[in-house]
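To illustrate the input format used throughout this study, we show a single complete record. The first block contains the structure-token representation of the backbone; no residue identities are included at this stage. The design step must infer an amino acid for every position from geometry alone.
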């Protein structure tokens, strides 16, 4: 009974975070204009974008299978696919818990040790994080002139905003100096720090990060794994880019703008809210503003359609997978 109450409280807490963030983003916006913008959307592009979302999930399934094969396991891909869909469903209830659930399901139906499954999931996350960082630096190098022009036109010419930015720059400088000082102190007292538990945990995390990258490079099918990773991220990219064509005010935006939204809005998924609700919307809207899209109603409407269509897709297929997985495996228990 106590465990059920705790689970319910967790769901309520995480949902509350998402609802509050969403409310903060949209609280001062003109709701009627947003609704009118939503009515003008061409939803066939949304449906087409979801097809690419499905392809991304297939690539994720094949990629996970490749990590399990060197261990001597060949689970049925339908089970891997179902478990991934259920993972997303669970993550919308309790963020970050879906990974544990999908490992538990494959442990149950495919008899693969939970610890080994969790290790492959950790490797997946490392690779995805590495790809996101690489794309982020590509974005910085290619879009710096655009961001610089935006700052020049919208911030430096606004006295109030300019003073705020000066304060932010000063804070960044102080933070950078403090960071360098901290690194110097860590180096000086490194021998004493090695005896602390937190040092050992950080060291272990770094080692696991390196091991995760090496494990992919040592795969027999490493190029197939890299290809599936590229296809998966490409499908996620197309999923959002096609959403641009659902609105007249975003249909003219270049593919590079879509990449900017994908990368920057992805950082909103770190927030412990269902599907990054609120945080994803805010980052997507602000990214579009840089490229000349009005926040209200255009950016707001786009963020709702792009995020909520994906959420409905994941929840629907997650529920279907939740129902079908026990049926498909009724003779495997």
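Output of the design step:
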């Amino acid at each position: 009974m106590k465990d059920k109450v705790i689970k319910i409280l967790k769901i309520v807490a995480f949902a509350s975070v998402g609802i509050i963030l969403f409310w903060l983003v949209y609280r001062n916006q003109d709701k009627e204009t947003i609704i009118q913008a939503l009515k003008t959307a061409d939803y066939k592009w949304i449906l087409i974008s979801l097809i690419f979302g499905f392809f991304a999930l297939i690539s994720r399934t094949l990629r996970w299978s490749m990590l399990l094969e060197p261990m001597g396991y060949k689970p049925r891909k339908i089970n891997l696919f179902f478990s991934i869909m259920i993972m997303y469903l669970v993550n919308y209830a309790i963020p970050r818990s879906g990974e544990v659930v999908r490992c538990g399901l494959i442990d149950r139906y495919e008899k693969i040790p939970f610890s080994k499954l969790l290790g492959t999931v950790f490797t997946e996350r490392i690779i995805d994080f590495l790809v996101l960082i690489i794309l982020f630096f590509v974005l910085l190098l290619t879009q710096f002139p655009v961001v610089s022009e935006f700052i020049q036109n919208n911030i430096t010419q606004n006295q109030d905003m300019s003073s705020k930015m000066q304060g932010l720059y000063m804070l960044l400088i102080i933070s950078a100096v403090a960071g360098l000082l901290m690194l110097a102190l860590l180096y000086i007292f490194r021998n004493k720090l090695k005896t602390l538990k937190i040092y050992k945990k950080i060291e272990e995390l770094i080692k696991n990060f390196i091991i995760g990258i090496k494990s992919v490079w040592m795969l027999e099918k490493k190029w197939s794994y890299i290809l599936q990773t590229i296809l998966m991220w490409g499908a996620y990219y197309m999923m959002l880019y096609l959403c641009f064509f659902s609105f007249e005010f975003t249909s003219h935006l270049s593919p590079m703008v879509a990449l900017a939204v994908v990368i920057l809005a992805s950082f909103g998924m770190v927030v412990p809210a269902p599907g990054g609700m609120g945080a994803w919307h805010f980052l997507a809207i602000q990214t579009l503003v840089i490229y000349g899209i009005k926040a209200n109603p255009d950016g707001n409407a786009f963020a709702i359609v792009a995020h909520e269509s994906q959420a409905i897709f994941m929840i629907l297929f997650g529920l279907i997978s939740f129902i079908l997985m026990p049926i498909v495996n009724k003779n495997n228990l």
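Structural context for interpreting the output: Residues 43-235+308-328 form one domain. Residues 114-154 form the longest helix (41 residues).
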